[in-house]
Write a structure and sequence with these properties.
The structure is a homodimer of 67-residue chains. Chain A contains four helices and one strand; from the N terminus they run ααααβ. The first copy, chain A, has 67 residues and is mainly alpha-helical. The mean pLDDT of chain A is 95. At the A-B interface, helix 1, helix 4 and strand 1 of A face helix 1, helix 4 and strand 1 of B. The structure holds a DNA duplex (30 and 30 nucleotides).
Amino acid sequence: MTQLAKYVKEMRKQFGLTQVDLSQKSGVGLRFVRELEQGKTTLRLDKVNQVLAMFGAEMTPAKITEV
Amino acid sequence: MTQLAKYVKEMRKQFGLTQVDLSQKSGVGLRFVRELEQGKTTLRLDKVNQVLAMFGAEMTPAKITEV
DNA sequence: CATGAATATCCCCTAAAGGGTATAATCCAC
DNA sequence: GTGGATTATACCCTTTAGGGGATATTCATG
């Protein structure tokens, strides 16, 4: 499970949304939300950010914080 | 110019690499490196991380830090 | 100025991302 | 247990990301 997947899953719960809610509000497909939460790595960056925007977040480059 | 684009450009300079060097060392295409440094937003996350790994970095979700 | 290196732009092609939808599997509360 | 909601898997289809390569263009440096 990737860090991103965990992040989205948790934030979604915190916001009290279902996957369907999130996909509709963010404007990405339901399938995308699922693949995102399941840790698919080949996702498109803009779509990921589109979802993260719902939580006031975004993807940013950062030094790898060890294990 | 996106934050990511700036980050890569700067790190690449710091490491004394050309775009060609970086593309070869990271294993992505030269065109990808260019689009990355030019702020294309529809890049694939795994490829971006593949490049960032050269600098010991990765993409992570984070609260949007204002303007 | 000339010359070469680095970067940018354009074309073609293939693999696959992402949307939709339908069906299964889980997870509740009752 | 049953029923409804939520999540997971699987399929088809269209669009496009990304690779390679060719051709500008820009930027150094002598």
